[in-house]
Structure formats: structure tokens, C-alpha cells
Amino acid sequence: MDKLGSLRAFVKVVESGSFAEAGRQLRLSRSAISKYIADLEESLGVQLLNRTTRHASPTENGQRYFERALVILSEVEAADQAVTQAQSAPRGLLRVNAPMSFGTMRLGPVLADFMARYGELQLQIVLSDDLLDPVQDGFDVTLRIAELESSSLIARKIMPVARMICASPDYLARHGTPKHPQDLREHASLTYGYLLTGNQWKLTGADGDHWIQPAWSLCVNNAEVLRDVAIKGRGLALLPEFIAADALRTGKLRAVLEDYFAPPLALYAVYPPTRHLSVKVRLFIDFLVERFGRDEEVGAQGAEAGSGSHDSARATARSDLSR
């Protein structure tokens, strides 16, 4: 049995809704397409398609199989393309969406190197604190620092991003330094309100997990704003390390509760599943892995470094703390 040929035939039948049309697109006879499908159904022991004289549609099992088959064929074609196009220079327009803070603080400084390496590419970078739709808004790659939810998109992990609770020395002098997560209930908090957990903070230490609902005085979807307000002594903020790094270095902020850790987020490159990943998208993501994947400054406590491999679950990102 030609499993790959059967998968291609099955996908074409589902996409076109017709054995005859699938045959035309694959330059095969209708009988050849029928044999591919019959062989596939016999090997699986399930019916994949509902058939009429003029139309074919997937069964419930067939729909699930179709979704997986798309990914498999995409990976096969991406592997083929990676070999055949390895020596060709990428050309054309590459549209990238990234959160504002990560874009200005981390992505911006390395873009010139990517442009120098691939001079025939046109880059269009859209920095936005809105959760834009990668498909509807036409982006080739969307960068998210996030918790992931299941979806039809594919997410490739670039690197982990640690988070820490910070406050200004002035605030700590006036209000005291929290020694235990429960102490946070007595402090003013500056929160990022677009996490899957809402405004709750989860901290883990030797004594287990602690879920804290802080008494917040500011809720905003931009971590640089949280940092700046924390520097002015208005409360405690849970910040990505790369956002707080300079202020920590200069003493404008101090990390507290260092024996407890917030779950690390990760930088993901999110893109739609396609029949093959274009070489320009692949090279851009590989460049991000090269520059950020081994970045110790943004290493996460207790988390593995981003390996650059695809996440096992296709996913989309909902919450961005890079903003």
C-alpha cells in the first residue's frame, strides 16, 4: 500500500468533495483515487468518507483523520522543500506580527542582521498590543510570549521567558518586603490582566503552589507600563525578566520572593498550517532560534531552553506579557 499516495488522494477528495475532481488535480483516474481511498479505509478498519454519486464528505472519523493528514503532508512537503530550496535565496514579502515591547526591545536590534543575511527579502513588521488574527490579517509569522490554547495554528517554541515579582526600593522601604506569597494580599499590585488565569498570580516554592488574587491598583496589557509604574513606587509587578532586567541591574527595581517562581511563559512563532512551509518563513524562525534560543538572559528557572522543535499540539497564543 502506498500510504503517502493514499493520504494525498484522501486529502484531495475531502478538499474538493469529489473523487473525479481529486483525480483531475492529482492527474489520476477516478478509479485510481477510489482504490487509494479503499486501501486506506481497509488498513484503518474505518469508513473515512460518506459517498453519493456526485459528492464525497468526511465522516466524523474522516474529519479527524483529514486534520492529521494535512499536518503530515505539510511536514513531508516542508522536508522536500528544505532540501530542494536550501541553496536558493528567499525572495518576496515576509509579514511578521510581534508584541510592541518585545518588538522594540529584542526583535528590533537583530532585524538588521537578518536583512543583511537575506537581502532579497522585503520585511513588513507590524508591532501591536492587540491579539491580531494571523490568518485573517495575513501574517506569515506571529510572535507571541504566551500561554497556549489549542487551535488549528502551529506554534514553534523559540525560548522560555522567566517572570519575577519586582518593586522599587522606595516602595519596599515604605511597605516592607513580602517574605511569603500570602503576604502579597497586603500589598498594592500592578497586574497584567490578559492571562489565562485572569488577575491571579501562581507562585511555586518548596512549600507547594500558591494562588494569589492580588489587590491591584493598575491593570494594563503592556509590561513596560507595569515596569515604569513599579519604578515609581506604586506597587509590586509580576514582570518578564527581559522587561525588568535593566531596572534590576541599575537598582531601580528589586526582585522579591526569589524562592518562589511564577510559571515561565515562552516565546512562540505561530503560523497557519499550510501544505508546505515557505523557505522565507522557515529561515526567519530558524534565525530567531539561533539568536534567542540560547539566550541565557531570558532563561527560565526550571524550564528547558527552547529547542526550536514544533510543539506537539497545534496552538494559538492568547496572552502576551512581552507587551
Structure in words:
This protein is an alpha/beta fold. It folds into 3 domains: 3-84, Arc Repressor Mutant, subunit A; 92-159 and 266-317, Periplasmic binding protein-like II (D-Maltodextrin-Binding Protein, domain 2); 163-256, 3-Layer(aba) Sandwich (D-Maltodextrin-Binding Protein, domain 2). The chain contains 9 helices and 16 strands. A 5-stranded mixed sheet has the order 4-3-5-15-7, with helices on one face. A 5-stranded mixed sheet has the order 12-9-13-8-14. Strands 1-2 form a two-stranded antiparallel ribbon. Strand 3 (92-98), helix 5 and strand 4 (121-127) form a beta-alpha-beta unit. Helix 1 (3-16) packs across helix 2 (19-26), helix 1 (3-16) crosses helix 3 (30-44) and helix 2 crosses helix 3 (30-44). It is elongated. Residues 295-323 have low confidence and may be disordered.
Tell me the number of structural domains.
Answer: 3
**Share in β-strands:** 15-25%
CATH class of the largest domain: Alpha Beta
Please identify which CATH superfamily of the largest domain we are dealing with: Periplasmic binding protein-like II
Distance between the termini: 51 Å
Order of helices and strands: HHHEEHEHEEEEEHEEEEHEHEEHE
Q: How many strands in all?
A: 16
Mean pLDDT: 82
Order of strands, widest sheet: 4-3-5-15-7
The largest β sheet comes out as: 5 strands, mixed
Give the overall form: elongated
Number of helices: 9
Helical content (DSSP H or I, runs of 4+): 25-40%
Structural class computed from helices and strand pairing: alpha/beta
Q: Can you tell me the CATH topology of the largest domain?
A: D-Maltodextrin-Binding Protein, domain 2
Q: List unreliable stretches of 5+ residues.
A: 295-323
Estimated radius of gyration: 24 Å
- Specify the CATH architecture of the largest domain: 3-Layer(aba) Sandwich
